[in-house]
Amino acid sequence: MIKRLLMILLLVAAPVWAVQPDEVLDDPVLEERAREVSKDLRCLVCRNESIDESNADLARELRILVRERLVAGDSNSEAIAYIVDRYGEYVLLRPQRTGSNLLLWLAGPVMLLIALAMALVYLRRRSVAPVAVEQGLSDEEKTRLSKILDE
């Protein structure tokens, strides 16, 4: 019983590839390269899903385009560069960590360090600040208060 349940869970949890049979290349080496390339490309319709996993029409077109480029003799990096030139760097599931992207990659940790430093400075200044001593009412204030309360 437990084995059957485990098998069902494994089958349900297995990834479902969206590659259609008419897209598959005859050469198994080229097909493996096409799968490898398409796992690194984002479906522009589905957001954080690779074109290899997506059923969207645009993902299908991108899979076919990748296969055409590989059949034409492009290397994996040349095929990816062609897609990036055509659709922009957003199509990469893992954007490059160079140029302007480096600023985006580093902005989060830098902002966290700045916030921690500001919190530390605030807490240190607060602990060193003189404690305000509460003073009682002066004689003038007492007489004025008693006048107000009597009215």
UniProtKB/TrEMBL annotation:
<keyword id="KW-0479">Metal-binding</keyword>
<dbReference type="InterPro" id="IPR051263">
    <property type="entry name" value="C-type_cytochrome_biogenesis"/>
</dbReference>
<protein>
    <recommendedName>
        <fullName>Cytochrome c-type biogenesis protein</fullName>
    </recommendedName>
</protein>
<dbReference type="GO" id="GO:0005886">
    <property type="term" value="C:plasma membrane"/>
</dbReference>
<comment type="similarity">
    <text>Belongs to the CcmH/CycL/Ccl2/NrfF family.</text>
</comment>
<keyword id="KW-0349">Heme</keyword>
<keyword id="KW-1133">Transmembrane helix</keyword>
<feature type="signal peptide">
    <location>
        <begin position="1"/>
        <end position="18"/>
    </location>
</feature>
<feature type="domain" description="CcmH/CycL/Ccl2/NrfF N-terminal">
    <location>
        <begin position="7"/>
        <end position="149"/>
    </location>
</feature>
<dbReference type="GO" id="GO:0046872">
    <property type="term" value="F:metal ion binding"/>
</dbReference>
<keyword id="KW-0408">Iron</keyword>
<keyword id="KW-0812">Transmembrane</keyword>
<dbReference type="Pfam" id="PF03918">
    <property type="entry name" value="CcmH"/>
</dbReference>
<keyword id="KW-0472">Membrane</keyword>
<dbReference type="InterPro" id="IPR005616">
    <property type="entry name" value="CcmH/CycL/Ccl2/NrfF_N"/>
</dbReference>
<feature type="transmembrane region" description="Helical">
    <location>
        <begin position="102"/>
        <end position="123"/>
    </location>
</feature>
<keyword id="KW-0732">Signal</keyword>
<comment type="function">
    <text>Possible subunit of a heme lyase.</text>
</comment>
<dbReference type="InterPro" id="IPR038297">
    <property type="entry name" value="CcmH/CycL/NrfF/Ccl2_sf"/>
</dbReference>
